């Protein structure tokens, strides 16, 4: 707290946003005057916020009261001095401080996404390994729209015209929004977010921001902060930024591609490479674990009904867990690199995923493969879209059912987290089923 207090005073902060992430990735917490924040040394929040759905509903009472204290007690939220961010869009000097959550006895709250990632990272630490990750975040820019029944349309750029057609890797199409992205880069630098390349992706007004590789927990924090930063920058310029997995019909979906490798802590060596630069046995087992277990943990990578609309062939989105060298039709891609940078790119996670849970699931699958020495399938050298091995669940319902039956999820993530997460996803899906879609009205209204 002394280090944090010094930092707050040096930056003349007057307000502190004390935040945690819920299961859906929504930031929840309290806004406190800096003096009160320093006096209280954290905050208290009802543990029940971790069982709230994306629609603001709650899970069924039988699950709610089996996982939470019937008295609806508070959890203790303690600030992490390594997860502090100055907010450049506020009128008063304001800091966002990410908190960790504990019960009254000091035990980490199992339902907390940040604690889930910490639990997985502890497994690696026990082996003397350090995961290194580099997320790539795709998103769409769209015109503002206050009617959810109206399809989203591309925004107006500097030229005064909306983008038309596919403009993959177009510099000029990205330049249409230069003022927005200049603010975004300035704001990210101000907050210490280590972002790298800006790319115009395949979709109309679809962009991608790449993060520099680094510590897994830090990058999960940065992705959460970046999403909010990108939305704020877009709103400042009169448009919207969305991280929905599939926000626009007949356009590609948006992913959170996760590059991951593992260092030996003592030597600093990448354990995915042999001394001659070839693929190590541990790397092969890591791939094998991804193939075996991703289908069981898919709801952590594809958490919403909309997530599964992204999984279509010939749309730069994987539909299986095949692996291959520099093969973008595979869910697991090995990019071209030297021995030091040898890594795996998990292309399955959606941009809508909770960054803590997606990174935790991706790393856990690889860890289990290394522990169990799971051999991968032969590398795919052609179009993985045409191969049916290691097929994935095709709906959120089937994916959640598979996760519920997963002994691996319960062993490593815990019964409380597994049951709570499944309950939240099912409550969200029940809410979704109550809504009549425009497709139903268009094709069934006067035809059946």
Walk me through this protein's architecture.
With 448 residues, this protein is α+β, with helices and mostly antiparallel strands. The chain has two domains: 1-109, Glutamine synthetase, N-terminal domain (Ubiquitin-like (UB roll), Roll); 121-413, 2-Layer Sandwich (Creatine Kinase, Chain A, domain 2). The protein is built from 13 helices and 14 strands. The chain has helices spanning 2-10, 34-40, 61-67, 113-126, 171-175, 178-191, 216-236, 281-301, 355-372, 396-404, 407-413, 415-433, 438-444; strands at 15-21, 27-33, 43-46, 74-87, 94-102, 129-143, 195-200, 206-211, 214-215, 239-242, 256-264, 323-325, 332-334, 344-346. The longest helix has 21 residues, at 216-236. The termini are far apart.
The CATH topology of the largest domain comes to Creatine Kinase, Chain A, domain 2
Number of domains: 2
Mean pLDDT: 94
Number of helices: 13
Q: Please report the total strand number as a whole number.
A: 14
Poorly predicted segments: none
So what's the overall shape? globular
CATH superfamily of the largest domain: Glutamine synthetase/guanido kinase, catalytic domain
Work out the helicity level.
Answer: 25-40%
Biggest pleated-sheet summary: 9 strands, mixed
Q: Into which percentage range does the β-strand content fall?
A: 15-25%
What's the architecture of the largest domain in CATH terms?
A: 2-Layer Sandwich
Distance between the ends: 66 Å
Order of helices and strands: HEEHEHEEHEHHEEEHEEHEEEHHHHH
Structural class, from secondary structure content?
alpha+beta
CATH class identity of the largest domain: Alpha Beta
User: If you compute it from the alpha carbons, what radius of gyration comes out, rounded to the nearest whole angstrom?
Assistant: 22 Å
């Amino acid at each position: 707290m002394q280090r944090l207090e010094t930092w707050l005073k040096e930056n003349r902060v007057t307000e502190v946003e004390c935040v945690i992430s819920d299961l859906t990735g929504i930031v929840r917490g309290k806004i406190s005057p800096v003096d009160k924040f320093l006096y209280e040394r954290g905050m208290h929040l009802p543990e029940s916020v971790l069982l709230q759905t994306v629609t603001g509903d709650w899970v069924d009472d039988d699950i709610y009261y089996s996982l939470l204290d019937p008295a609806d007690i508070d959890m203790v939220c303690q600030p992490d001095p390594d997860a502090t961010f100055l907010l450049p869009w506020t009128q008063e000097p304001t800091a966002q401080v990410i908190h960790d959550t504990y019960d009254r006895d000091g035990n980490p709250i199992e339902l907390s996404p940040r604690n889930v990632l910490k639990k997985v990272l502890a497994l690696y630490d026990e082996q003397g390994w350090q995961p290194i990750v580099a997320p790539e975040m795709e998103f769409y820019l769209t015109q503002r729209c206050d009617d959810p029944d109206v399809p989203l349309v591309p925004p107006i750029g500097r030229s005064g015209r909306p983008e038309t057609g596919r403009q993959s890797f177009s510099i000029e199409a990205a330049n249409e929004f230069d003022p927005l992205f200049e603010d975004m880069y300035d704001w990210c630098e101000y907050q210490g977010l280590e972002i790298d390349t800006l790319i115009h992706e395949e979709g109309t007004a679809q962009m991608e921001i790449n993060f520099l590789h680094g510590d897994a927990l830090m990058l999960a924090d940065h992705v959460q902060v970046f999403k909010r930063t990108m939305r704020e920058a877009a709103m400042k310029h009169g448009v919207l930024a969305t991280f929905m997995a599939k926000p626009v019909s007949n356009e590609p979906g948006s992913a959170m591609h996760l590059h991951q490798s593992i260092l030996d802590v003592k030597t600093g060596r990448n354990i995915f490479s042999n001394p001659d630069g070839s693929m190590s046995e541990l790397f092969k087992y890591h791939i094998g674990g991804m193939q075996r277990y991703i289908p069981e943990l898919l709801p952590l990578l594809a958490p919403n009904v909309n997530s599964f609309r992204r999984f279509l062939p010939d749309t730069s989105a994987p539909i299986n867990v095949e692996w291959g060298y520099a093969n973008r039709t595979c869910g697991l891609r090995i990019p071209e690199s030297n021995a030091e940078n040898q890594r795996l790119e998990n292309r399955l996670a959606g941009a809508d995923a909770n960054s803590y849970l997606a990174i935790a699931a991706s790393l856990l699958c690889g860890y289990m493969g290394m522990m169990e020495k799971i051999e991968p399938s032969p590398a795919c050298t052609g179009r993985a879209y045409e191969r049916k091995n290691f097929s994935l669940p095709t709906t959120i319902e089937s994916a959640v059912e598979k996760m519920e039956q997963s002994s691996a999820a319960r062993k490593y993530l815990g019964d409380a987290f597994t049951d709570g997460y499944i309950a939240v996803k099912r409550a969200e899906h029940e809410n979704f089923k109550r809504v009549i879609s425009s497709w139903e009205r268009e094709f069934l209204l006067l035809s059946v």
